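Handoff note, outgoing to incoming analyst
You'll be picking up this chain. Sequence as last confirmed:
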Amino acid sequence: MGTILFLALVSLISHPLAKRFGRRVFLVLAGLMAVALVVFVSLAASVFGGETLVEHVEWIPQLDVGLTLRLDPLSMLFSLLVLGAGSLVLLYCAHYFDDGEVGIPRFAGVFMGFATSMLGLVVADNVYLLFIFWEATTIFSFLLIGHVLRLRTANSAALQALMITTLGGLAMLVGFVLLVQAGGTPLLSEIIADPPEGTLVTVAVYLVLLGAISKSAIFPLHFWLPGAMAAPTPVSAYLHAAAMVKAGVYLIARMSEPFADVPGYRWTLVILGGITMLIGGFRALRQFDIKLIVAQGTVSQLGLLVMVIGVGDARATFAGLVLLFAHAVAKAPLFLSVGIVDYSTGVRDLRRLSGLGRRMPVLAIVSIVAAASMAGIPPFFGFVAKESAFAELLEVGHEHPAAYVALAVAVVGSILTVAYMIRFVWGAFASKPGVADTPIEHPAAAGIVFAPAMFAAFAVVYGLASPLLDPLFRQAVPASPLGDPEHLSLWHGFTLPLALSAGILVLGVLVFFPARKLAVTLPPPSERFSGSHAYWVATHALDTIAIKFTSLTQRGSLPFYLAVILSVLVLALGGTVLSVQQWPDEISMISSPVDIPIAIVMIVAALFAMRARTRFQGGLLVGVTGYGMATIFALHGAPDLALTQLLVETVTLIAFVLVIRRLPAHMAERPRRVTRGFRLALGLGVGLVLGAVAVVSLGARIADPISLAMPQLAVEGGHGYNVVNVMLVDIRAWDTMGELSVILAAATGVASLVFLNTRDDQSPHLSRREARNATRAHLLRVADPEDPASRMNWLLAGSYLRPERRSIILEVVVRLVFHGLLILSVFLLLSGHNAPGGGFAAGLVAGLALVARYLAGGRHELRATVALDAGRILGIGLALAVTMAIIPLFFGQPALSSSWVDVDLGPFGSLPLVTSTLFDIGVYLVVFGLVLDVLRSLGSEIDEHEEEDHAEFQEEVAK
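Most recent structure output, in case you need it:
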């Protein structure tokens, strides 16, 4: 877990580091990922020796969600692949990108985030945690594929990949939930050790497989992978050759052995994998873009992997894992080589490439070695892996006939593999008759070849040292009662697999020559019945339906929107109330005589609001009902709710007044009689339904409410006597974090509607020193009571105020109460854990202090009072809250757990220090930032617009 947290921290700091150091940051990131690789290598001996390393931290035990990580031989193999390939690809990036290229900081951070998520995916044992990492890789891959924002093809491909893999992931989540329910445990290792049975489990397994085949681009969901080649070459080499697409294969390898006997499991994977292998192979032979040759070849090889592992026998799984690593160390350098060719020449069309083999001999050798390994030529690792697959499929076929089908398809697909690998090498590096040598316009640095050369070297070394790797792969698969897989070796004698390999090479060479011209002579295959066409038909239909539905419902009429919402409320909630026969035995209309005058005031205010002629009058009357509700809360022993309601109502009223400045003062024309009747009926319906809900809720309660235990839980769990505040920052702090995110989104939305470029106030900044100097200048003047311009400045930005707009009484009052309000807000913040208050109410009080400052001095005063950007304050507050949620995990406690210490102050009593107070400070900053953002957007920015409009009007009058 420490390594994952380390890489997560690196991903967070990658963006600022890249902004500072440019492309050189990739060297640093490669070194840091190599450090993580060394950590895993240091654990490899014990893991492959039979020890399983497990770490567990409680997270949400009520939902069976825990941070459970498990490192066994299979996850160790994939971890080494993720970290090793990631280190080399990062080294490649240091030479691939140019200095000053746009988007390098974003790419660095997202790439590291993807690598961290992929590592978490292969070591996660809790299925819900696995799903979280699974979807994280989907999101990061979306960002990486669409890295070049100006390319529509990249954006479209990124969206397609996101849609397909996300839908598959959601299906997988449902499957996981069903497996957890059937198996009684959320741990994948325990589900596999004792697999449940039944129809429900069968459905669950196929849902999980749907997620796996969507991630690994298996037919019929294979079409997203070639389109994703619009991504930069390092993305293709890492995500689509060595990491992301292997996630589905990893999950299938985990599940094949225990669930292979699920009806149709073997045949489903063998058939889908076989179709994918053949489609990818044939399409690779038709491509002219050398990157698409490699991409379609990746699709083909993924089909082979799924087909072999999907046989569901430990021996076949063993061969499939060997094939997986052989594919990774061969396909990654092919993608990287394509990137170098494209970087150097700007050309990827094999019809225009010629003579590069002579002028780029090292790159040509690296590509030939990688292609030879992919084709299964000895002594490379690909030959060892393919022979192992043939041998195991022949052996397993005695028990499972699906293995023979997989073998036949693998032979045909391997012939195509040889042919398109020759086509790739010939197309990229050969000198072609009648084609001029391709000019090298942008010579690549010598170091860029290092990463693909290392991959190619692994293909050679692993082939020669395959007997040494044999025990590692054996440890990664369970023992089979039907026998052990054959040992990895370059030479097993004259066997049938050897004969098949030799025949494949001969036939592959023979297929290459006619296939070289076949793509020119034959028409392209129809896309009408392809998965890609089905995807675009579905998305086009969805867009059409969305446009029509939006045009029907989104009319730009607020009354219409409210009518729809409230009508649904009345029908849905009202129908539910009528179907529930849980009425209380007796109903008490009032609990105190004081309720009667308050209710009368609220009702009268509501009636007058209906008859209001101006917006300002209507807003004030509506506010009366809110203040009345706050009074009721206060009278019924809820001071926290009363304080919060009072402050929220005040801030809302101020925001409303700021908005209506740009609207006509009077209401629109009165609606027709029919419309008024409908609104009256709808209002009465909403009132009756909500009243009935309150009554039914009281009658439906048959057990003691959980709130009875809240005072004790507040003291024991949160060390506080204010139950409301302890609930917000401790017991139900997850809800509070969600609400903070909503506040942040709302503030961003409000600002985006008003500000054009930045949410920061761009008015001239008046420092406090400048304000003091202006005040001294006023004191040195001889004040003339009849001259408003000579009045003393009571505010920081007083010199910016026009004399006719100043109010000395208001300025003096604000000057006196401002600091008191801030002190009061701090008091409410610190005392809220044991008395009425808390971060939310305190933030509103501090915000009201800013409101007073703005109303007295305008936008310049607001800028002088708080020079920080509101967005930064919001971000710091949310970051502080999230940090306080995460810190307990480092001490083996659930997220958002509280700790405290009582400091003895002698005669002054004791001071309780609770960690949740820091969380509350985050709430305080978010609320304060929200008020500041509203004031700067709805206040300062609108003021500036009005001043500009007034200046333009004066200019027109002057002309």
